[in-house]
Specification:
alpha+beta, two-stranded antiparallel ribbon, 15% helix, rod-shaped
């Protein structure tokens, strides 16, 4: 069984543990058709276009 050769300090232990929980903000891009903010490589929820092609039919009120 593995046995540590030296005591791990509180600072080193906490630094290692804190790095796991950091979340990055998801990447966002703008729609080429309507200019709304959307997730990259996804259909725009505002207008239904993807790469300049109408994929979804969205009723505008």
């Amino acid at each position: 069984m593995a046995v540590p050769k030296a005591k791990t300090s509180k600072a080193r232990r906490n630094t290692r543990r804190s790095a796991v929980w950091k979340l990055e903000m998801p990447a966002m891009s703008t729609c080429t058709n309507c200019g709304a903010i959307k997730a990259p490589h996804k259909v725009c929820k505002n207008c239904g276009f993807y790469k300049g092609v109408a994929v979804l039919k969205i009723d505008e009120e």
